[in-house]
Amino acid sequence: xxxxxxxxxxxxxxxxxxxxxxxxxxxxxxxxxxxxxxxxxxxxxxxxxxxxxxxxxxxxxxxxxxxxxxxxxxxxxxxxxxxxxxxxxxxxxxxxxxxxxxxxxxxxxxxxxxxxxxxxxxxxxxxxxxxxxxxxxxxxxxxxxxxxxxxxxxxxxxxxxxxxxxxxxxxxxxxxxxxxxxxxxxxxxxxxxxxxxxxxxxxxxxxxxxxxxxxxxxxxxxxxxxxxxxxxxx
Length: 234
Hints:
mainly alpha; about 70% helix
């Protein structure tokens, strides 16, 4: 299959059937990985003076064996996401990798309102390698389309969308592109819909105003998770 032919076709749905066993194994592994995700996320700050030094320090925290802390929020979240993704994709390595990376990015963004390049950018080549084969070109097109779309939104309203969100969009667009055009649209719209509902909730409960700011990354990630669960094999 030529690159042009592969790019012209809508990516086929995931071929692996839902697997409860894979879900249980992945959830258990996810809880263990969640300990490392929590420690990695704690290494990133809202406004570091030196992002490279910050990244070295954050990843350096993984050299020692961390232990779960109570309450284990991050561990439980990682277990739940990995379990759901493994169940729906049959433990597809590309989507399991994205799940762990996504939890880390979501936790960091929720805590610091940042999406560090040290987490986002290295994930691009890894995800691309895991999507090698018939899914590669649809994934590449999906990532490029997401970068263009979110880049235009950032250019038009830089005060409401961070450039870290643009870079995250390209990563998520690759995964959604591998699932097909419908999943890509569902994931993109889902993130905006969830963010709008959250903003409406803030207004309804008087916990925010029309000018309130909140991290958008977690909603992008939730929208993508929803699209993966929806587009997976039934």
